[in-house]
Amino acid sequence: xxxxxxxxxxxxxxxxxxxxxxxxxxxxxxxxxxxxxxxxxxxxxxxxxxxxxxxxxxxxxxxxxxxxxxxxxxxxxxxxxxxxxxxxxxxxxxxxxxxxxxxxxxxxxxxxxxxxxxxxxxxxxxxxxxxxxxxxxxxxxxxxxxxxxxxxxxxxxxxxxxxxxxxxxxxxxxxxxxxxxxxxxxxxx
Length: 189
What we know:
The chain is mainly alpha-helical. The protein has helices spanning 4-26, 29-47, 55-84, 99-102, 115-134, 137-148, 153-160, 164-184.
């Protein structure tokens, strides 16, 4: 069993690494500090009586679970905020509040989009996908790596095993071919 001093020394030795790990995962220093503090408290409360040799693995598991819990709670919170952000209720009314009658989708979101717009957007995306599939292999590969995967010219060249100039040429030819094909179909981007 770890003594209080061993537990304290262990927590002191891992706090900086744990903070860096949490900060890298959540990208917010304040949240990372809370996560590390919660993980340390959980370790001390629930596993403080374990042997000192077991503390590193236990702490790492607790830290990872605490980070995952943060992301789960953010996802749930984000869902509810999004769902209710469009509500416009008037608390002065004595009438009951009906969510379905009062919901207004936020302008510019897919929820506010008409069915006609959704169908039109889907048709345009299908046309673009069909034209991308018709491109020659190297042009398609360069185009997808550069513009869909958001890689720079050097990364794309390394993956494709060619020069940066070749990547630029393939991308230029692909964009011109796509623009021409989509223009012929009446699609302007």
